[in-house]
Write a structure and sequence with these properties.
Pfam families: YjfB_motility
Structural class: mainly alpha
Largest sheet: none
Order of helices and strands: H
Number of strands: 0
Protein name: Motility protein
Organism: Azoarcus taiwanensis
Distance between the termini: 73 Å
Radius of gyration: 28 Å
Shape: rod-shaped
């Protein structure tokens, strides 16, 4: 292996490493943005109504 091919190989590996780091950085930023959007959507949901008093609607029949 001569010096120029070794240098080219090292340069290619370095470029691949930088590209992988950039892709990982973009992925992290995308996930952070999605997490923020999901939290914002959950914050806009209305609070659920309280359970009815008495026996009406208190029992769910799951027999199939």
């Amino acid at each position: 292996m001569n010096v120029s091919s070794a240098a080219a190989s090292i340069s290619a590996m370095s470029l691949a490493n930088v590209q992988a780091q950039a892709a990982l950085s973009v992925l992290r930023k995308t996930l952070d943005l999605q997490q923020a959007n999901a939290a914002q959507l959950l914050a806009t949901l209305p609070t659920p109504a309280s359970a009815p008093s008495g026996s009406l609607g208190a029992i769910v029949d799951t027999y199939v």
